[in-house]
Amino acid sequence: MVNEEQLRILRQGVAAWNRWRGKQPAIHPDLCGANLRFADLREADLSRAGLRGANLSDADLRGANLSGATLRGTDLFRADLFRANLSDADLHGANLRQADLTETNLRGANLSHADLVRAQLISTDLAGAMLTGSSVYGVSVWGIKVNELTKQQNFIITDHDEPVITVDNIKVAQFIHLLLNNQEIREVIDTITSKAVLILGRFSEERKPVLDTLREALRKHDYLPILFDFPPLPNQATLGTIKTLASMARFVIADLTDARSVLQELQAVVPAFPAVAVRLMIRKSEHEYGMLDEIRLHRSVVEDTYEYEDTDKVIASIRENIIAPAEAKVEELRRLIRPVAR
Questions:
Q1: What domains appear along the chain, each with residue ranges and CATH number?
Q2: Burial of 254 (C-beta count, 10 Å sphere; 0-12/13-18/19+)
Q3: How many whole angstroms separate alpha carbon 250 and alpha carbon 246?
């Protein structure tokens, strides 16, 4: 039960409350079941307070210190917790629907089975937090901080009146929610996975027409060309970008002309994505690098390298020499991974 004397002090305002807390540092306030709806509790020291079952809906808790507080089953509907400190707080089963948790410190907090439906988690610190079984339908997640101690399991991504779907990652939960509830996003993803063609190469100014014409020719064949022009000195960030793009592509076209760095990237990318077809091409006047032999050993790479003389011949024979071999490899790889019917 709520301590009426402590509640009376709190109702006098944050300044009076914080003065009292400063004089009574050993006391753990008992505000269990208190009705604090719409309360202005900005910067309030509620650390280690008992707030089990309290009504804090629509409360202004910006910058408040709730570290170590007990908030089991507490109603925090639409509460503003911007930059509040809830580290090590117990929020098991708390109602955080539509709450603003922007830049909130939830390190080590227990949010298991909490209701986070349509809550905002922007730059929220969830390192070491327990999130098992939380409801996250419509949650907004951007730039959150998690670590190996963050427990992410059984997030419920559907609303209360829908069949239950669970996932084990809060960022994935947001993505799948968007996928299930937004036809346009589904269409975009279908377009990327069925039509995207990643073009790798090093295109100098004099060779820019090769890029432009190849890209335009792919468009005419109803593909979605994605160009990656390698920097002279690729780094780990470059590798990460190319891996992300390759994972989404229907197939990859790699022009090895004047592009030693492309070989280095292919050595990292081809083994990582064995189900993504790769079509190699090179200008006839160029020398094939020895490393190509190792790359060709992978089943995803079309066996021969297409050698071209000039841009016009590339475009004139793009279906025969680039698209058809790449699509044949796509189908071959699909047959290999398709389950055999029994």
A1: 1-181 (2.160.20), 194-337 (3.40.50.360)
A2: buried
A3: 8
Q: Scanning the structure block, which residue is given the tokens 């680039």?
A: 322
Residues of the chain above pLDDT 90, percent: 58
On the CB side of 110, how many CA atoms lie within 13 Å of its CA? Answer: 12
| Gap between the Cα atoms of 311 and 316, Å rounded | 9
Q: What is the pLDDT of residues 160-190, one digit of tens each?
A: 888 788 998 888 888 887 777 777 777 777 7
Tens-place pLDDT, residues 187-203: 777 777 788 999 887 76
Nearest to 317 by CA among 238, 230, 214: 214
- Best CA proximity match to 80, nearest among 36, 112, 138: 36
Q: What share of the chain is helix, strand, coil (3-state, %, to 5)?
A: 35, 20, 50
| Mean pLDDT confidence for 2-17 | 97
Angle (nearest 5°) at CA 182 between 178 and 184: 120
- What one-letter code names the amino acid at 193? T
Rg, the chain, Cα only? 28
Given the structure tokens 């079509």, which residue do they identify? Answer: 279
Give me the amino acid identity at 311: T
Q: How far apart are CA 236 and CA 202, in angstroms?
A: 18
Identify which of 235, 225, 236, 237 has the alpha carbon closest to the alpha carbon of residue 200. Answer: 225
**Do residues 151 and 171 touch, judged by C-beta distance below 8 A?**
no
Pairing of strands 120-122, 140-142: parallel
